[in-house]
Design goal:
The chain is mainly beta. It contains two helices and 34 strands.
């Protein structure tokens, strides 16, 4: 094979140019460290910490509607009613039977999918709904007479269906209504005008971790204070209702997280306290300054806790859940030990004895009433020691809500069937039933009642029924 000089010209020129460039880089480039690598010095194995700034939403201006407040008196101010126990003490007599057509349905309104339920005050029905078109949590004020909207106001937040969207029950006092949105925004609104007084984000302020299926916590108003459990950098906080100013904060050194339960007030030995079921313990804090009085790790969240603590006389607290635990319920007893309070476990119940996935049991006439998840949702009456008195047999309601009024139990099934039974402590006696929602499903939102008017909902509708004895049509 014969080589020519011209065949070598291009490769030789490229080699010379490369040598020159390497020399220049060595003379001018940065020095290289050839030290032996030390573990950790290359910063591998540790994710970069990026601070994500959370923007607190801003509420808009209220929009007026055609509705007007009802003249019907009565108040259902918050989750579980005026005394936080699921009992209506309104003196309005209720009918003990219904015609075949059921009690009068006064009105029905369409809602976005969810389980949010209302508070009622001054003839107004107040509900935190979600507007999918504008992508906003929306506080709606409706007339108790006909369900027409009096006003609405909102703030933007991105939400998607997560076993429904809306959650929680607002709380009203002193002409204000406070709501907690699914992603832990807390807003205070003027009941009459709909103007937003103030708004905070518990994720932004307290590093709250939004629970699975969004938050189910309902706000607690105690006098002129708002009580929340952000369970982030602070466990429980008290705020001035009118201004949102923080009054005290309970430290959270063990980093317990938020559950779906709500804070419940409790009086014990002359001291007012707040009881909260966090992810790692049940705790009691002093109402005066928020310092922690006691804790119990006998009840911990295995998957989720939705029912709130039930406060019984003489320092007893009943807890229940229905998610994947070998223990369905637990009774605690507060005791003075030396100079401190302690919560001792009195007894536990297996799920087959009692458990509850969503709703909070009721203490009435010295007995506990609830709907047991195990077995399809029977209504159960128990003594304070946990022993069963009766169950509802073939009346099975699933996960539906219930309340007591005028010495009757009102309970809703998953598919929107309303059952009325005697609040008896000796046996189960059903008085009436009515299918409120045709093709109903997931009718799990808590009930509200004033003056014999009961408000219930399923996944996408809310209805007002007149259960009063004086307004039942003849059969």
């Amino acid at each position: 094979m014969e080589w020519r000089i011209s065949d070598l010209a291009i490769p030789l020129a490229a080699a010379v140019l490369g040598t020159v460039l390497i020399g220049v880089w060595i003379q001018t480039g940065p020095a290289l460290s050839l030290d032996m690598r030390v573990p950790g010095m290359d910063r591998r194995g540790k994710a970069a910490q990026v601070e994500i700034k959370i923007e607190v939403p801003v509420a808009g201006q209220p929009q007026s509607g055609p509705g007007t407040p009802s003249s019907v008196s009565g108040i259902w101010p918050c989750f579980r009613g005026p005394q936080h126990d699921g009992i209506s003490r309104d003196p309005t007599p209720l009918a003990r039977k219904w015609p075949e057509s059921g009690p009068p349905v006064l009105w029905t309104v369409e809602l976005t999918e969810g389980y949010a339920s209302p508070a009622i005050v001054d003839g107004r029905v107040l509900l935190l709904d979600y507007d999918e078109q504008t992508r906003c949590d929306t506080m709606r004020c409706l007339s108790l007479d006909d369900g027409r909207e009096i006003w609405r106001n909102s703030y933007p937040v991105e939400l998607t269906r997560n076993h429904g969207i809306s959650r929680t029950v607002p709380a009203v006092a002193k002409g204000l209504v406070v709501s907690i949105g699914p992603r832990c925004q807390v807003a205070c609104w003027d009941v009459e005008t709909g103007q937003c007084r103030w708004l905070i984000d518990m994720v932004e302020r307290y590093k709250t971790e939004v629970p699975r299926w969004y938050t189910g916590q309902c706000p607690l108003i105690d006098g002129d204070r708002l009580i929340l459990a952000p369970a982030g950098t602070a466990l429980v906080v008290a705020m001035d209702l009118e201004t949102g100013k923080v009054l005290w904060e309970t430290p959270n050194p063990k980093r317990w997280k938020m559950t779906h339960a709500s804070v419940m007030p409790m009086e014990f030995q002359g001291q007012r306290t707040y009881v909260y079921c966090a992810s790692g313990a049940v705790v009691g804090v002093a109402a005066e300054d928020g310092h922690q009085l006691w804790e119990s790790t006998a009840w911990t969240v295995k998957f989720a806790t939705a029912p709130s603590p039930v406060i019984l006389p003489e320092g007893k607290i009943f807890l229940s859940s229905g998610y994947g635990s070998k223990v369905g319920a637990l009774m605690l007893q507060l005791k003075n030990v030396a100079t401190s309070l302690q919560a001792e476990s009195l007894f536990t119940l297996a799920p087959r004895q009692f458990n509850s996935e969503q709703q909070t049991p009721i203490f009435y006439k010295g007995h506990l009433f609830g709907i047991r998840k195990q077995g399809g949702g029977q209504i159960v009456c128990m003594k304070p020691d946990g022993s069963q008195v009766w169950d509802s047999g073939q009346d099975r309601l699933g996960h539906g809500p219930y309340m007591l009024a005028n010495d009757v139990i009102l309970a809703m099934s998953n598919d929107g069937r309303l059952v009325m039974a005697e609040a008896s402590t000796d046996q189960y006696r059903r008085l009436a039933e009515f299918q409120v929602f045709e093709n109903g499903h997931d009718a799990w939102g808590p009930m509200a009642m004033v003056a014999g008017r009961l408000i219930v909902r399923d996944m996408s509708r809310m209805s007002c029924l007149d259960l009063s004895a004086s307004h039942q049509p003849s059969e």
